[in-house]
Amino acid sequence: MMSEFTESLLQWYRKSGRHDLPWQIDPNSYRVWVSEIMLQQTQVNTVIPYYTRFMQAFPDVAQLAEADVDEVLHLWTGLGYYARARNMHKAAQMICREYEGEVPADLETLISLPGIGRSTAGAILSLSLNQSISILDGNVKRVLARYYAIAGWPGNKKIEQQLWEKADRHTPKQDCAEYTQAIMDLGATLCTRTKPDCQSCPVRAGCQAEKQNLQHMFPGKKPKKILPVKQTVFAIIANTEGEVLLEKRPPSGIWGGLWGFPECTSDQKLVDWLASNRGYVTEIARENAVVRHTFSHFHLDITPVKLNLLATEDRIEDKPDQCWYKPDGDLKLGMAAPVKKLIDGLFSTVVGEH
């Protein structure tokens, strides 16, 4: 028997839910998987254009697996949390190598793949195959925490386990694909983080937070902590061809595998560092205003420094981890958002000074 919560939610979804999202059209495990990874910590409206471009480039898991990781990261540029893209690329290769190119259809195998956790695996299987498996993404946590007035931060293991128990209780044996989309839609459109539309909520009658007028208290907030601040210097070097020098970052660490400017911890040491470590003779032309980029665990203050290249030979022929990049050229590279923003904003100035 379906719970009253589930029945009410399904009735609402069939009339008022979202039915025309790109990944809902001809859904299969691969299409749903890509959408679920992109939607992690990212809004639907932001994801849609990225998803559309990504599916045009990689319409199936085999083509994703065969692609160069730079091409994958290029299409991810601006979406953030780049480990998602790297893990998806690795998982696609594993699927083609170990599972004959078919996305696994069981929970445990999916969870064993890079970047796929319990909730993401459940969403893939329920939305694409209608399997009766519960999910617990951010929207679902908020809905259930309010409905049952479960206090505390959902990142706490004890609180998370309570929410999983509620999620399991309401996940139906049939119509699971509809239910999964319904509860995500409820959190995304009505039971929002701020200003929830309780008057339109299909499960309002049983919501404990609404009865107490304490919607703002649930779910509990993550304990605040002061983020440390780190500093770095970006070396913006242009050559006589109107290109800027980029380097490929190590595969692990922040912005792993992406392309960016040569980096140094101090602008005063930058010229000597470039000469001794990269072989480039430069002089500082201009220091730009500091740009702050915030990660989940720290702030990064970036000082972009424009440098003039003084050596007569300014081409790179034999360094695979470096390249001269032109924004309007054919080279497709994955970049972190601050790098792309600096290139977009500074390139015309950089090339205009030659």
Keywords:
single chain; 2 domains; 43% helix; 354 residues; Nucleoside Triphosphate Pyrophosphohydrolase; elongated; 3-stranded antiparallel sheet; Endonuclease III, domain 1; 14 helices; alpha+beta
Structural overview:
The protein is an alpha+beta fold and 354 residues long. It has 2 domains: 214 residues, Hypothetical protein, domain 2 (Endonuclease III, domain 1), CATH 1.10.340.30; 124 residues, Nucleoside Triphosphate Pyrophosphohydrolase. 43% of the residues lie in helices and 12% in strands. It contains 14 helices and 8 strands. The strands form 2 sheets. Strands 1, 4, 5, 6 and 7 form a 5-stranded mixed β-sheet that branches. It has a 3-stranded antiparallel β-sheet with strand order 3-2-8. A hairpin with a 4-residue loop joins strand 6 and strand 7. The radius of gyration is 24 Å and the shape is elongated. The chain starts with a helix and ends with a helix. The C terminus is likely disordered.
